[in-house]
Batch of 4 targets.
Target 1
Amino acid sequence: MIAPYVIYKGEAQYLGWHDSKEQEEATFALSLTGWSNNYTGFKWLSEHFHPYSQPTNQDAYRLLLIDGHSSHLSYEFVSFAL
């Protein structure tokens, strides 16, 4: 199981929004709308999903199920996933 990835609406994240335990168990990101976009989608894939789901056996596969959100269909996202 991988830790949660929470996207907040805003331009800056302030210290003290989370206690230290939450920060160890989740990753927090920002977007102007509070929704995922190409940038946050790729950041989640490359900096969150990939390291947290790295198999111990380098030949093993991982399965990522996604919906049809446009951020999952960007060239950068798909190239990295492949």
Note: Strands lie at 5-9, 27-31.
Target 2
Amino acid sequence: MSPFRTPSPVSSVKIHRALIGSAVAIAAVVAGTLGAWSAGAAAQPAAIARPAGLVGEASPVRSGPAQIPSAQSASQPSAGRQAGELDAFSATALSSASGKVLHAPQGKSKAAPTPRQIARRLLRHFHWSRRQFRYLDPLWNRESSWNVRAYNGYSGAYGIPQAVPGSKMASAGQRWRTSAATQIRWGLRYIKDRYGSPRAAWEHELATGWY
């Protein structure tokens, strides 16, 4: 038989069908892969699909440990604030870090001096030592209980030193009816002119019941 014989028609058809079947299978696999890739890409959001008009953009997510701001960085004032000012977030961060509640500084109100405190201060203006107050205190405590509005309806005496009449205390300052400083200044002047010292006035009070 000749080696260059004509191939059988049946064999040619089988080979042709086998080749076509393989090509179709390969095409199906490639098409399926492309379809799966297209479906996955469609599920991802587009990089350019952001709302218009945003001032800043969020940074992309990166792998690695998350960065937590420290209390020191939170305590630093921003560039738009003056030094010493804290917003609510920074104040809360500082409060949590230190365990202390931050309060705004408030001005301290100074209480007005009492009549006894005023009398102690005025003693030196009459060249008396502070020890004279131990005699002045019981003297005016008996006369008026150190009350600027004390009034004796029988004699007309008025105020802490029980001046008669009370209007004469106007020579020592303003508001003689309500000012403890005016009344005490007048009373000390009266004691100095008449007795020389609170001790002598108190001794007279003990002896006679008045001064």
Note: The radius of gyration is 52 Å.
Target 3
Amino acid sequence: MLSCAEITELTTEHMERRLRGAARLQFMMHVTMCRHCRRFLRQMKATAALLGQLAAPLPGTDTEEFLLARFREIGVERGIVAGTGLS
């Protein structure tokens, strides 16, 4: 059977429905028998639901300028001609 630490590591995969076969069965068996992991899973689902309701913050001009400068730096480092995507 999976340990509580393993359940913690697999919770995101479970919530995104990426666990298959034996891993999914072991996850569900453990959560069924372990009240601490059931509580953890409920908390994670509640957190995800609340975060899903938040509006994404718009980047400020400082953030936009920083990202544009960094993208330019990466382009220079990789030898990409600015504005064309070509090297």
Note: The chain is about 70% helix and 0% strand.
Target 4
Amino acid sequence: MRYIILLLLTISLNLNAQTTLSGRISICDSLPLLKPTGFSNSDFMYSKKDSTTWIWRLKWIQAPIRLNAKDGKDGQQGVQGIQGVQGVAGVCPSCPPSSGGMMKGYVSTWTEFVAAYNDKSIRSITLMANITQTSKLYLDKNYSEIYEINGNGYTWTTSIDTAIVRRYASLTEANQGIDMQLRMTNISFKGNNNMLLYLEANYGAKFEGCRFYNFGTALGLFWAMGTEINECYFWENNIGIELDYARFVGGSNSASQSNHCIITNCKFRNSAGDFANIKATAVSGLQILHNIFEGTQAGGDYDIFFDDNNSNVVKEVLIYGNHVEHQPRIASTYIKLKEGIAKVGGVYSQYDCTLIKFESSAYAKMIVENIPFLTPLTKFENVRAEGRWQFINLPSSFTPSSTDRWIGTMPINSRFDLWDSNGQQPYIQLGNRKL
């Protein structure tokens, strides 16, 4: 009887020769709790209970195909065999074809990843196992569609210097690919003091739910406008996120900036010797909201380092709702802004440190607002006399005119909107007033 069933299965495969399946198909009444003995990465499990198909990647993951098994009558796709075996299944015509035992775009090795990326019919790659990068990945210059890489929580390990690259020679050339929207989600990147991503010319890139460990620079974004970085972890990187302008021909700190980016709900950790969790150069409209900065005491130089680079179009930056849960070596937030308005508010700092260091050469305003708590030795630093400060709604115990609160010289012509000693009535303390 066994040989007859094998013969019929062979006939069924020949009848369905238009469908190529490299893996085996097992059929069960309901999905088992654990992987069956001998079940490989290229095998499929079909559940008769709910007509679903599954693959095993450390756990059961539903496969994006439907296996059309039929009752085993002669001449149809399958043959009813021992224990109700329904025969070899065919892949539905609307489902993506399989390749090498894997669905297109579903990869378990770096070789499979490269093959999937080079297949221009694929716009989404999904990791099905931990992978180790063995060659540099060049993102297409003229690609102007959405491209996503989903990690499923798996690890991407790389020690390649500048592991992922998109670089242009000129602003004209870069305009051909600016509408690419690179989306990376749920990947745990592990480096070796190298640079993970150097990305030029991207509008609407998104990094969500990812982790970045031990990079010199994790994300390097140059003329990457409208980028969103959300719910990511940055662990012991010299620079976690670098936002900068692209320095190709025709680019400048006014013409090729990474404008209108938002960094929110992320967690950063650094140690002594690291430069900054976030480094922004000539970025207009940047928002840094509701993040956590932690690490060793006297750890990285800065949590946030913002430099307008004397750009004529950079006029504002908004930093709000962040927690400083360590002691930066120089300052938690450094802002250099020639003119315009910088706002820092809602910050919670656990340790004595220089909370804000501000530098302006053309009377820019630093507005500090809605800070509910300051440690006794929290300090501020005004680098140049041109910088103007305004404090709004700070603790009644805070006296901004006290020299104990300042590194160096206090700012002049600044405004302090505070509360009286019992916290009931607001009052205004001014510098020089024009009558």
Note: Residues 1-21, 69-101 have pLDDT under 50 and may be disordered.
